[in-house]
Every structure is written in C-alpha cells, then in structure tokens.
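ARCHIVE CARD
Drawer: 12
Card no.: 0347
Subject: one protein chain, sequence and derived structure
Cross-reference: see card 0346
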Amino acid sequence: MKNLSREYLETLSSAELIHLADEYGVDIPDDLNRQFIIGDLLEFADELESDERYRESVVLSDTGQVMNVNVLPDSYNENRVNVILRNPASLFVWWDLSESSLKQLEESFGTLRLCVNFFETREDLKPCDSFEIKISEKERSRYVIIPSDKKFVRVDLMCDIDSREEMLAFSQKIPLPVFSDFMILRPGEKLKIPRAMELSGAMDLLREHYNEYRNSFA
C-alpha cells in the first residue's frame, strides 16, 4: 500500500481529480486550475495524516486505485462505558476516555476503576450490591463474571484524583439472565454444564476472575 501522493495525483485527468475531491468531500470550484485541485487534495491528505485516529484511512492499492481502509479510531475523545452480556455468566465491558481526562489523570497521578453495581429493579437508584475492579489508563475492556442471583447491572467508570472521587461515565442498566447453577459455582467444585459453555472457556474465565476478584463471590 502507498500513501496518497502528488506523483499519483499528477497522473489523473482533471475530471478524475474533481471526482476524487467529490468522493472525499473536498469542495472544488468549477473553474479551479488542476494544480490547485491537486494542492487541495494533498492538504486534505496531510490533515488526515496528522490525525493518528485516521492515519492510513486514505491509501492507494498497488495498482494505483484509491481505496478507503475502514480503520476505526483508537478513541472518540469522550468518556463512555458500555456493557453487554458475553454469555449467561459474564459481561464484556469496554470504555473510552477523553484526552482531557487522561491528561488530568496523568498530571495528578489519579487512578481508575470500574464499579459494577447490581439492582433489584430497573428503576432503583441505589444498588443492592456492588464490587470494584482497578484498571489502568491503557486498558479499554474487561470480562467480568456475574455473581449469583442478580437482576440488573450498571457499570460506572470512576476515577480518584487528589482524594476526590469522580464518576466519568456510566453504562445503561441491563437485565441479567437467570442461570443460577453456574453462577454459584466455585473453582474446584464439580458441576455438569452444557458442552457449548465448556468450549467457550467459561470455566477458565471463572477461575481467573475468582483468583483476582474473589470478593465478588462472597
């Protein structure tokens, strides 16, 4: 793959340059000289190149054809946390942090954590149970085992800065399935579980989570 370059643009006709500009949303007046069109396209490419979140999203194939490589940005520059059910016994949690929050954490030596809250009903404001997981600034996702007999869950992204607690973001509150046999299981205990769940690695996840966060099994 090659970066979009002046050499390639010089090989295109004026009509092809205008079509390329239209494709990428570059506004080109009808009577603009082709060299100015090339200059505007190169400026557009430089702006993308300077933004690491979109780097290499506009490239050429080896045949010279312009291609869009759908590269997702590393960050959307906002504080956000999301949660979905990975299987009946665990959650997948992923989050994002804004540049300003990361800078504040770095300057104040702050710490991050996930607070996993459980509720009896969707309308409850106060959790009936919760536990916390320490996370690093570089992490963006975690798998979390669901303790037994819980009905709704919400995950909060928390930070501690200068002895002050702050909620950066919180997920939607989602209902949890009833699957009590597996969810009360402890490592070392024997239980016949479905083959599909065994192949999913659920038992390995259970052991790992118990070793690191066994307070959630109390």
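Annotation on reverse: The first strand starts at residue 2 and ends at 3. Residues 52-56 have pLDDT under 50 and may be disordered.
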